[in-house]
Amino acid sequence: MSVIRTSKFFAVLAGSIVLVLISAGCSIGSTDSADSTTTLPTVTTSAATSSHSADAEQSSSTTGVVQSAAERYGSATTLVPILTNADTVTTAGLGPVRIGQLLEKAQSEAGVELIAASTGSEACQYYTPAAGATGASFMVVNGEVVRVDISSGPITTKSGYGIGSTKDAIKSAFGSKIEESEAGDFVTFVPVTDGDKGMRVIWELDAAGMVTSLRTGRLPHVTPKIGCSE
């Protein structure tokens, strides 16, 4: 009878030990899982941080798209002038700058600053474009453009006559519309249409009959060789 009870006791004891071991194994596993889980917020946080960084970069990139050049680079950009060497002289003016325009309008149309000469007055002043039209200047009387001078560079009339052209070529092209000075030092295009009768285009010539400068404008301002001289 004692033997049976002893056997049962050891059986129960053995079963308890197994349960304890199993329980300890689960506890180790849970502890491992808990440790892994405690690292998950780090991983999750890292992922969130990466996502946040990506969002920040995307936001920064988007912000960069809408920034002005001055905001991005810290300086203003220079716009390309509308008035260029490709523009031509006519009785109306030079390209987008027209005889009769107020100075502010002329500057807006030119797309570039018109800089006042160091000489002159409010009554009569010359202005040159800061860029875009080589050798061009505008005579402004009482705030209004009345004349355009081309003293150098490639700009020509609409029909192609500029510095370096010859008197004979101009006379041949325009025929009776050209008047030559008595001294032969300049030739003048005289329009015949009603709207242009008060306008002139004048080419100054050297002794060989070659163009050294040209101008267009309204009478009487266009007549003197040197503007703002009267």
Topology readout:
Layout: H1 2-66, H2 69-73, E1 89-90, E2 93-94, E3 97-98, H3 103-110, E4 114-116, E5 124-129, E6 136-141, E7 144-150, H4 167-174, E8 178-180, E9 186-189, E10 199-205, E11 211-218
Task: Give the gist of this structure.
With 230 residues, the protein is α+β, with helices and mostly antiparallel strands.
Walkthrough of the structure:
With 230 residues, the protein is an alpha+beta fold. The protein has two domains: 2-73; 89-218, protein yfey like fold. 37% of the residues lie in helices and 22% in strands. The protein contains four helices and eleven strands, in the order H-H-E-E-E-H-E-E-E-E-H-E-E-E-E. It has helices spanning 2-66, 69-73, 103-110, 167-174, and strands spanning 89-90, 93-94, 97-98, 114-116, 124-129, 136-141, 144-150, 178-180, 186-189, 199-205, 211-218. The strands form two sheets. It has an eight-stranded antiparallel beta sheet with strand order 4-5-6-7-11-10-9-8. It has a three-stranded antiparallel beta sheet with strand order 1-2-3. The longest helix is centred in the N-terminal third of the chain and has 65 residues, at 2-66.
